[in-house]
Write a structure and sequence with these properties.
- The complex is a heterodimer of chains A (231) and B (497).
- In chain A, 48% of the residues are buried.
- Chain A has 231 residues and is α/β, with parallel strands linked by helices.
- Helices cover 25% and strands 25% of the residues of chain A.
- Chain B has 497 residues and is an alpha+beta fold.
- Chain B has a 6-stranded antiparallel barrel. A 5-stranded mixed β-sheet of chain B has the order 2-3-1-4-5.
- In chain B, a hairpin with a 4-residue loop joins strand 18 (478-484) and strand 19.
- The chains are: A alpha/beta (231), B alpha+beta (497).
- The interface between A and B is large, with 90 and 93 residues.
């Protein structure tokens, strides 16, 4: 009998035991994101509690995590988004999760630690701050103490139990076309999400809608505003 | 034991019985007066030597010129007042208990020459015996009814069955029946209102107008008040702050917390917010802090199946600590319809603990070094002027249905300050379309762009004229660029994520 390669063996195990998860993931019920395809690729069906998850910035990360925050609130728990850079647009923020806008990087890290340690939040998302070295250690300890899920949007994966990457597929955008067949509004796009952990590697393509906005002053929202501007 | 005082000559020394209270309070902790039976004065001797209290009260009254006073001591108020008012003289005809009653009667009669002597009551008395029903002061209609059924004495009334009294004579009859049996559960002395924790500070050599110094002083007072609250296992929902001013006036303000708490930190933050918003007409020479609404800390009641229930207190404490250390960082948006997206939102503190909303307009631009399209954390040049109340850790209400799988959407994110970029463009009929841009040293190719979305305005003020483009970049991201028509420059304003 020919010896099976590790990759083939892993594939065989995934086929035979599709619901199997690493033993260390079974300690607590994970925080479901509410996005079906995403939950299916996450170990345990959601973001792990008591552990650090790192998600690389951009590429649809915020859309997935905001959905996770809303899902946590919908199930009766609390979620908080720490927006250090102040990039959240108020017009598109839905009340439900708490929104914290610290004034400095230090404040963001201290605030994250405090909120993680209190144990009252099922999900804490830290955006706009990249913890380094001992800062990551402190946050990891705090999340272990508090027992919630913590996601740091940072390219630095150190100490993370789960590493997430996402990328919007460039040619996956679907446009609403105008009467002159020019692109007017983006309807949806496809995000490729990959989840990596010890003994775990899964990915999925998730199509998400794009929130429209309107700054135009024309009467017809579907038409581009072609009025001239003083130059 | 109840001590009752009665005199036919109260009005000779005082216009009202209440004027006798200050003198009697020197010998007893509480004094209550009633106008019934010509004036009764009750002296609280519960837990004390009743006979001593009664004798002392008689001495005090004699000292102010009242010599004709009867004092009676009884286990129940009705017995004490009947004896004090002189209605309980003679043999009450109680059979086996008559012996003790006779002693008492003797005592009463013997006290006629010296009516100040207190008349002790035997604990064996079970009814008021041969005393006529009229000593109980029945309602005239009920008195007629009792007379009609042949009940003339308290003993006869007490001998009836309670159920039959209730059916035939009603609630008033039952009350009289209980009194006839010597059962009197009247609350002569109502429960003492608890003294709520308070603390005050006064000074005379100077006046204070500086908020920080006032907050410093308040911190000390809060420490005292909160400590007293915790000693009693209580929490406060509202405190009253009185500022005594140098011009003689007193400013009274209420400070409310959304959740009852005895946390000094929480109250200090609320007080600080109040003081920072206050305009003082004169310097402050005194502070008084009182807990106005106090509740017992019995723990939170709620739904056991609420997953956020058990952690509400910890969450609130964490958010409160965050707000205290960093200011109003827990915010909610208040949106307008301004054409410029970055000016549409006013961030206000999360409504919470009773002080209502306080708008803190976040600066639309922060000086921040950024890398590529992801701005780094920045230090704001504007610090909020006040520490805001802690937001309440509201209990999220579970939604009956599971969230839709499509709950994730790509949403616009904005740079705090639009960043100037260099753009490559193509000419179109009446505008230019970006085909690439350079940001932070790297060039990004634009696969497709939608626009322009033109917006202009405020010609009388800070005029703006922008042409926005939604651009798909070659790495898959979608960015929001605009061309400033007035300055003829290109800017990166945001991206979708």
């Amino acid at each position: 009998m020919p010896a099976l390669s590790i990759a083939a063996l892993r594939e065989l195990i995934e086929q035979r035991f599709p619901d199997a998860t690493p033993a260390n993931w079974r300690a607590a019920e994970p925080v479901a994101t509410g996005v079906g395809p995403l939950d299916r690729i996450l170990p345990g069906g959601g973001l792990p509690r008591g552990q650090l998850t790192v998600w690389t910035p951009q590429g649809g990360a915020c859309s997935m995590l905001r959905a996770a925050c809303r899902s946590a609130v919908a199930t009766g728990e609390r979620a908080v988004w720490i927006d250090t850079a102040g990039t959240i647009v108020g017009a598109f923020w839905e009340n439900g999760p708490y929104l914290v806008q610290p004034k400095s990087r230090q404040d963001a890290l201290k605030g994250a630690e405090e909120l993680l340690r209190c144990g009252g939040f099922a999900l804490v998302v830290l955006d706009g701050t990249e913890p380094e070295g001992t800062e990551m250690v402190r946050l990891t300890r705090a999340v272990r103490e508090g027992g919630g899920a913590f996601v740091a949007i940072t390219p630095n994966p150190s100490l993370a139990k789960l590493r997430m990457e996402s990328k919007i597929i460039p040619h996956s955008y679907r446009w609403t076309r105008g009467p002159f067949d020019d692109p007017v509004e983006v309807r949806e796009a496809t995000i490729r999400v990959r989840a990596r952990a010890a003994g775990w590697n899964a990915h999925a393509d998730i199509t998400v809608p794009v929130t429209p906005h309107d700054v135009r002053l024309s009467l017809e929202p579907g038409l581009a505003d072609r009025r001239g501007l003083p130059r | 034991m109840f001590v009752c005082l009665w005199s036919p000559a109260w009005r000779t020394v005082a216009d009202s019985l209440a004027e006798l209270s200050p003198a009697l309070l020197t010998v007893a902790p509480r004094v209550v007066t009633e106008e019934r039976r010509g004036g009764l004065v009750w002296v609280d001797a519960r837990g004390l030597d009743a006979e001593h209290i009664a004798r002392s009260a008689l001495e005090v009254l004699r000292g102010i010129g009242l010599s004709n006073v009867r004092a009676a001591v009884g286990e129940t108020p009705i017995v004490a007042e009947i004896i004090a008012s002189g209605l309980g003289t003679g043999d009450w005809g109680l059979g086996r208990e008559a012996l003790s009653r006779t002693e008492i009667s003797s005592a009463v009669e013997g006290s006629q020459p010296s009516p100040q002597s207190p008349v002790p009551m035997s604990p064996l008395v079970q009814s008021l015996g041969l005393l006529p029903v009229s000593v109980l002061e029945p309602d005239p209609a009920l008195a007629t009814l009792l007379d009609g059924i042949g009940v003339e004495t308290c003993g006869e009334l007490a001998a009836l069955e309670g159920e039959s009294v209730e059916i035939r004579l009603g609630a008033e009859g039952v009350r009289l029946w209980k009194l006839a049996r010597g059962e009197d559960d009247r609350l002569i002395f109502s429960p003492m209102p608890r003294e709520l924790p308070h603390a005050s500070l006064e000074w005379s050599d100077y006046t204070l107008t500086d908020t920080e110094r006032l907050v410093f002083s308040m911190n000390a007072l809060l420490g005292t008040v909160c400590e007293k609250l915790m000693e009693h296992g209580s929490l406060s929902r509202e405190m009253t702050l009185d500022l005594t001013l140098a011009n003689g006036a007193t400013l009274t303000n209420a400070v409310r917390s959304g959740r009852a708490t005895a946390s000094r930190k929480t109250w200090l933050r609320l007080v600080r917010t109040l003081l920072e918003r206050m305009v003082l007409p004169a310097g402050v020479v005194g502070l008084t802090l009182r807990a106005a609404t106090v509740v017992t800390d019995v723990g939170q009641q709620g739904d056991l199946f609420d997953r956020g229930f058990a952690t509400a207190a910890a969450t609130e404490a964490a958010l409160a600590s965050l707000a205290e250390e960093q200011g109003d960082v827990v915010v909610v948006p208040e949106n307008t319809a301004h054409p410029l997206v970055e000016r549409r939102t006013k961030w206000i503190e999360q409504p919470g603990t009773g002080d209502g909303r306080r708008a803190t307009e976040k600066p639309s631009g922060r000086s921040s070094p950024v890398s590529q399209r992801q701005p780094a954390a920045s230090t704001s040049s504007q610090q909020p002027a006040a520490v805001s109340p802690s937001p309440v850790a509201r209990r999220p209400s579970p939604v009956a249905l599971a969230p839709s799988p499509d709950s994730s959407t790509l949403t616009l994110y904005l740079l705090p300050t639009p960043r100037a970029i260099e753009a490559r463009t193509e000419e179109r009929r009446d505008h230019v379309l970006p085909t690439g841009y350079r940001d932070g040293g790297a060039w990004y190719g634009i696969l497709s762009a939608a626009g322009p979305d033109r917006v202009s305005g405020e010609r009388w003020g800070e005029a703006y004229a922008r042409e926005y483009f939604r651009c798909i970049v070659d790495d898959g991201g979608m960015v929001w660029l605009y061309h400033d028509a007035r300055a003829d420059g290109w800017y990166l304003h945001g991206w979708w994520d």
